[in-house]
Prior knowledge:
Strand order of the largest sheet: 3-2-1-4
Mean pLDDT: 76
Number of helices: 2
Low-confidence stretches: none
Number of domains: 1
Helix content: 10-25%
Number of strands: 4
Amino acid sequence: MPSALTRRNITLEHGVVPATPGSPIRIGGALLQVVWVAAPCKLLDDTIGRGAQAAMRHRGGSVCRALESGTVVVGDEVDLDPPAAAVDLRSCR
């Protein structure tokens, strides 16, 4: 399935995307925090074709919020375990 058609802002080629609310993710210069798991919507069936929504079930990724802004470019390193001191996990509610 072409990643450009999945309606995701950022996609990863490999690895497991954190799904636990409060989990930090650093991509390039940006620090993100998982808010909730993203559910694929019916628009995938309309855009890609019948069955696309079902194919993306449990693979929709996570909705995140930005804790620190920064530039993100294709090929940036993804750190799924940034230093704890940089993240205030209490703010995820």
